[in-house]
Amino acid sequence: MSNYDFKKGNKCFYLGENEENPIAEITYKPTENGRVIIDHTYVSPQLRGKQIAKGLVDCVANYCREENLKVLPLCSYAQKLMKKNEEYTDILDIDNQR
């Protein structure tokens, strides 16, 4: 994971002073069937290209591993990253869309 101080918020992980005004964030929705849906990733323009978005995806991935959950990435960035990297195959759940 990157060297940034990511924080866990309410159904999100973020970088910044507080959850209401993050400079980078990933949001997710837990479902009743043991999955987490990643629905949005944002990194402010001045921070792009520094692997912050990947670090945020890793935060969700680690959370899901700890909680024994699967991930359905609907956010295009998270989906592309998770599909092409084997490090996420243990938690990836793309076969059961919604």
UniProtKB/TrEMBL annotation:
Gene3D superfamilies assigned to the protein according to its UniProt record, in alphabetical order: 3.40.630.30
Its recorded name reads Uncharacterized protein
Q: Which Pfam family, any one of them, does this sequence belong to?
A: Acetyltransf_CG
Please name the SUPFAM superfamilies in this protein's record.
Answer: Acyl-CoA N-acyltransferases (Nat) (SSF55729)
- Annotated GO MF terms: acyltransferase activity, transferring groups other than amino-acyl groups
Q: Which PANTHER family match?
A: BSR4717 PROTEIN, PROTEIN NATD1
Superkingdom of source: Bacteria
Domain N-acetyltransferase spans what residues? Answer: 1-98, 5-93
